[in-house]
Write a structure and sequence with these properties.
Layout: H1 4-26, H2 32-62, H3 67-93, H4 97-102, H5 104-144
Length: about 140
């Protein structure tokens, strides 16, 4: 199972979070238009990533015949539901310059909470999930042959 696309998405999302952090440090109200633009752009990547996980990654893990992968995939999928819902709400709330400019303190609080959860989740997948998938990738390919 090739998960390079998922890893690449993580890099793009983490870069997006870092850019939002930098813009926020430079001034939320002053950078409201760029912050909103980056949220919209990052949301596209996140939505595609989540869709690919749900359509490809998790079903493949369930069908792998490997209990460890199936259970790990199920666990990660369930945990992601609340994080994804929080991010969707965050993006909907802060996707225009007017909203960001009108409530910099609210944006900062929301961004710190939601983006921290997304960041931590990406790091956890990179550290605890993807390596397990990669370790089992060879045996999965052999089983499929």
């Amino acid at each position: 199972m090739n998960i390079d696309r998922f890893k690449h998405d993580h890099e793009r999302i983490l870069e997006g979070i870092a850019a939002l952090r930098a813009l926020s440090h430079d001034g939320i109200a002053e950078n409201a238009a760029e912050i909103a633009r980056r949220i919209v752009a990052m949301s596209s990547v996140i939505k595609l990533h989540l869709s690919a996980e749900d359509r490809v990654l998790y079903p493949e893990l369930q069908a792998s015949g490997n209990r460890t992968l199936a259970m790990l995939g199920w666990q990660f999928q369930q945990e992601m539901n609340s994080i994804a819902a929080a991010y969707v709400e965050f993006a909907r709330r802060w996707n225009t310059p007017e909203r960001v400019h009108g409530d910099p303190a609210g944006f900062r609080l929301d961004a710190n909470r939601v983006l921290k959860a997304v960041h931590e989740r990406m790091q956890r997948e990179n550290r605890d999930f993807y390596p397990v998938i990669e370790r089992h990738a060879g045996p999965l390919r052999q089983q499929a042959a």
